[in-house]
Amino acid sequence: MQYETFATLPQADQLSAEHSARVGRYLQQRIADAGGDLSFAEFMHEALYAPGLGYYSAGATKFGGAGDFTTAPEISPLFGRIVARQCSEALRDVRDSEVLEIGAGSGRLAADMLVAFESLGGVPPVYNILEVSPDLQARQRQRLEQEVPHLLSRVRWLSGLPDQFNGVVVANEVLDALPVERFVRRDGQVFQSCVSCSGDQFVWSERPASRKIIAAVAEIESDLGAALRDGYISELSFAAPAFVRDLSVSLQQGIAFLFDYGVSRREYYAPDRSDGWLRCHFRHHAHNDPLILPGIQDLTAWVDFSAIAAAAVDCGLDIHGFQTQSQFLMGGGLEQEMQNFEALPTARQLELSGQIKTLTLPGEMGENFKCMALGRGEIDTPSAFHFADRTQTL
Ligand SMILES: C[S@@+](CC[C@H](N)C(=O)[O-])C[C@H]1O[C@@H](n2cnc3c(N)ncnc32)[C@H](O)[C@@H]1O
Description:
Layout: H1 14-33, E1 38-39, H2 40-49, H3 72-75, H4 77-93, E2 98-102, H5 108-120, E3 127-130, H6 134-147, E4 155-158, E5 165-172, E6 181-186, E7 189-198, E8 201-208, H7 211-224, E9 233-236, H8 239-250, E10 251-263, H9 265-268, E11 278-282, E12 285-287, E13 298-301, E14 303-304, H10 305-314, E15 318-324, H11 325-332, H12 334-337, H13 346-360, E16 369-376, H14 384-387
Parallel strand pairs: 2-3, 2-5, 3-4, 5-10, 10-14
Antiparallel strand pairs: 1-7, 6-7, 6-9, 7-8, 10-16, 11-12, 11-13, 15-16
Helix pairs in contact: 4-5, 8-10
The structure holds S-adenosylmethionine.
């Protein structure tokens, strides 16, 4: 993967630079209050979600052309239409079913899915949105008011997972936005990567890893059948399996579709992947320094889908399938969506072709992004997974 360096990144505009300076001062104070360092997971959590300051909690544009990165629903309404098709199948199998979207971003996917449900002839009685960012909640409401005002009464914003939920859960690029710990294997020991201050800069520091991290690294090495080599750096997510556990408590009957960029554990901790999977986005430039541009760049980490699968199985969820985004779209209804393609004006055909390429080509989002479907209860496996399933690779 080619990353940019700080020198080649675009300059922040004045308002963003001022906001970043405020977030920087807040983080410096948090580090001082904590005695000189924060674990990377704490730093990432604050940089993304500190109320009124963090990247997702404050007012930056984030999504789409004017923001920092583009997600599948922002690229094409086809994504939401096909997700809605797959959801419709599962919704038919479940009594009193609703939809729950977790981490709805700009509201793009919600708007597209509601329109698609309508054209498929079955808008669910309730489309729940669980979103941690009040700023994004407001933007989601605004978009839905503008684009689907007649369906707004079906949309409900939640402050936490429902105690009991029946239906379909969708989360696109949420797992990668959950804070991760970073660790280093050195001299036969495990160290936890932390963030400290040097003047007004943030710098990496280390402490001996907690028992929890040491146990998690030992489990990884046992799964791999080999120790990670000296100097090996990578990430560990405790938040992502916890997310699955919380979801499993809520989900009584239904299916959860989790989309994200990620790989199996074997690939995640491959010997040549010795610098981890953190990725930062600033104005559509990807780089790997999470310690700069606090509060105005997105921080993400790829997902270890084997860990997600293991957490799901531990909680008694069924794994209905695991596949690439490309396989999901092709098996999930892309062909049906394209039935009238030839009747479209040429300009529209070209536009759609470009969107499909971005969503499905291996060098774009097709291979790196995966979909995992987890379920509980008597539910047929969604048809997308009849096309292809890679669960055995996990
Ligand atoms: C990378 S964005 C993806 C947004 C959207 N799903 C999309 O595909 O465009 C991550 C989203 O997850 C939200 N989020 C992060 N952690 C969350 C959590 N624990 N519960 C609910 N939403 C969360 C963020 O505020 C943001 O809306």
